[in-house]
């Protein structure tokens, strides 16, 4: 799978982000995208082939694997990475709209089309809320799908067509557990960064409005 489009998206977003937003881009790019592509994808590459049960009943192993892994971890994280990055497109599109509007009117309508103020501030705040909401949603969904943030060494399966309770073994559970904790931790870090940036922008905007009102009253 090519991740060039996501890399280009993050590069574009970086131009119009605050300092905290640039840290978020760095975390997503370095600690999530690169780790996913360079290491995690290979660890889960043959997870189905390496899932073994102590019985050779036809269909039993496939059914047990589907029950304990309804969605592949690696595809789940790929979807999560794409979804939490997509709201940033709103900011890129809004800036592009501003630039296109200036070209149509052939005059300078904004001091800086990429400056976070006015309508672009609202778009930026909406993108932060969406990113935070999606991060939390995927963490909760992962927890529900896999009954927690853990990779068991052994799972017991008694689903038909298995004739009785069989033991199934997951390959490289310790290694997978380490990367699971790392990816969950970076996801939590992104939530903290998004909430910090949201609070910062709201505080900055509120202070600006208060000072304007105060100056107006003084005059």
UniProtKB/TrEMBL annotation:
GO terms for biological process: cell-cell signaling. Keywords: Cell junction, Cell membrane, Gap junction, Membrane, Transmembrane, Transmembrane helix. Its main location: other. Residues 42-75 form the Connexin N-terminal domain. SMART domains: CNX, Connexin_CCC. GO terms for molecular function: gap junction channel activity. It is found in: Cell junction, Gap junction; Cell membrane. PROSITE patterns: CONNEXINS_2. The chain crosses the membrane at residues 21-39, 76-97, 118-143, 178-203. One of its GO terms (cellular component) is connexin complex. Residues 134-201 form the Connexin cysteine-rich domain. InterPro entries: Connexin, Connexin_CCC, Connexin_CS, Connexin_N, Connexin_N_sf. It holds the Pfam family Connexin. It is a multi-pass membrane protein. A connexon is composed of a hexamer of connexins. This is Gap junction protein. It comes from Prunella fulvescens (Brown accentor). The gene is Gjb7.
